[in-house]
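Quick one, tokens below:
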């Protein structure tokens, strides 16, 4: 008997291992197929056919790229945005700006989520291996340290930061400079500049390394901050536009616009003055409550993501639970593999995979749809285990009694088992729904404008780090508290009808 059980377990593990190998092969094959398909398409032709240019940026970098509230509407403004407008104008197409985390921009470019990236990018040798760059359109005078004004006497050079934590944006040139030239300091990388500034103000880092214009913008608009030029040594650098590899026709058109901008000195004579004007306007509107439309829009999208993700999670979870309880290995094994895979990988990785991985195959998949799918698929695995535990907790006699009355197996589950199981696991499902509502904030990494994303925009626009977070916490608390009360009411109703 023990030998039979052992052989069954061995066969089970073999099936799981083979399935995992097959999934890996399919992923690699699909990735290669997508890459080959992408390399054969002209992005410039696609831009002209769809009559729009999609530009990726990280709009937390004033005065290069940031957001201004104009008559209640969010507008992307800044030097880089004006340059993007010039390129779109010269191509005769509409400009569409996609705002996302800086360290996701080049991935978005390689997977064709954006047509080009304009976000204060420096064409380093490492980046040139994966993307091509235009000519340099702006050369900053060097890197600056942004510090708390109270620390002016304490920090003044690289040596003075010995043993301190230095903040820099993930994937940026500044991060590499600190890592290589400040070995006695500790570099701390974060995805957003406003998060780095918040870390600086809360004492998590001693300084943040930024380009000159950005550092001066934060120091000018926040009296508690101070910036000074660093003694970091860097190669002859500058900002350029990134485009996908092997797109010479698009790169040629981009360089035409860059040449025009340089010849007319538009960066200094037009783009910077316009950015300064927008920054001055934002500074005059520092009160986060004036940015209520930001938070309202974020709440709307958070609720949309939560509702549809719950639907996906419940439907998928019920199916997976029944598959896992099945005696047929063809149904049981895939359910086990899926649940273990989802529960064994971070949700943020899953969101990025759905958007950049699956989204590379389905080109028209929006960030919102990708976020809903990713969170719904994640929720399904946990809901499946909740439902399975609820079914297993029921006395076997319940199902046997139903079958003895002539009900089919499907009818027994539908009318007897599932309703009782749901009643037993309702508190656990409620916790999953509340967690899902809060986890919706993770989709901000791919540019979905939900509550957390909008909070980051307010931080950038007001140059304040803490207060917008307090508002966001209050919003999430109100939503979760309301949902808790609804779930408790439904639980009482179910117990009342016992």
């Amino acid at each position: 008997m023990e030998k039979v059980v052992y052989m069954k377990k061995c066969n089970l593990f073999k099936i799981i291992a083979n399935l995992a190998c097959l999934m890996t092969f399919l992923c690699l094959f699909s990735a290669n197929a997508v890459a080959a398909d992408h390399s054969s398409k002209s992005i410039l032709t696609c831009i002209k056919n769809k009559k729009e240019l999609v530009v990726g940026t990280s709009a937390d970098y004033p005065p290069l790229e940031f957001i201004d509230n104009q008559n209640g509407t969010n507008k992307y403004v800044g030097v880089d945005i004006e340059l993007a407008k010039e390129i779109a104008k010269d191509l005769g197409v509409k400009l569409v700006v996609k705002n996302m985390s800086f360290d996701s921009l080049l991935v978005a470019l390689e997977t064709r989520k954006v047509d080009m990236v304009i976000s204060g990018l420096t064409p380093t040798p490492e980046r040139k291996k994966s993307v091509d760059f235009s000519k340099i359109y702006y050369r900053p005078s060097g890197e600056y340290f942004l510090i708390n004004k109270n620390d002016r006497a304490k920090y003044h050079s690289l040596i003075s930061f010995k043993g301190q934590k230095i903040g820099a944006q993930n994937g940026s040139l500044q991060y590499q400079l600190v890592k290589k030239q400040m070995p006695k300091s500790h570099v701390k990388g974060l995805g957003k500049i406003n998060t780095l500034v918040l870390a600086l103000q809360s004492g998590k880092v001693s300084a943040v390394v930024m380009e000159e214009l950005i550092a001066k913008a934060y120091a000018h608009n926040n009296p508690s901050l101070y910036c000074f030029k660093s003694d970091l040594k860097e190669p002859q650098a500058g900002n350029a536009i990134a485009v996908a590899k092997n797109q010479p026709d698009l790169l040629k058109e981009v360089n035409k616009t860059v040449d025009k901008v340089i010849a007319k000195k538009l960066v200094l004579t037009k783009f910077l003055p316009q950015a300064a004007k927008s920054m001055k306007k934002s500074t005059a509107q520092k009160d986060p409550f004036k940015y209520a439309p930001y938070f309202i829009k974020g709440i709307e999208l958070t609720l949309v993501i939560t509702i549809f993700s719950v639907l996906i999670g419940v439907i998928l979870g019920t199916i997976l639970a029944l598959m896992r309880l099945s005696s047929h290995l063809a149904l049981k094994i895939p359910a086990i593999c899926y649940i273990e895979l989802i529960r064994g990988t971070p949700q943020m990785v899953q969101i990025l995979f759905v958007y950049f991985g699956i989204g590379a195959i389905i080109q028209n998949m929006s960030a919102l749809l990708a976020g809903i799918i990713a969170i719904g698929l994640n929720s399904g695995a946990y809901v499946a285990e909740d439902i399975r535990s609820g079914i297993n907790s029921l006395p076997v006699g319940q199902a046997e009694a139903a079958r003895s009355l002539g009900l089919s197996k499907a009818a027994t589950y539908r009318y007897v088992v599932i309703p009782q199981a749901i009643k037993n696991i309702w508190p656990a499902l409620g916790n999953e729904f509340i967690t899902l509502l809060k986890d919706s904030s993770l989709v901000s990494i791919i540019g979905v404008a939900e509550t957390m994303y909008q909070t980051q925009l307010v931080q950038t626009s007001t140059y304040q780090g803490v207060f917008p977070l307090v508002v966001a916490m209050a919003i999430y608390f109100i939503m979760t508290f309301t949902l808790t009360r609804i779930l408790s009411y439904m639980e009482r109703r179910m117990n009342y009808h016992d």
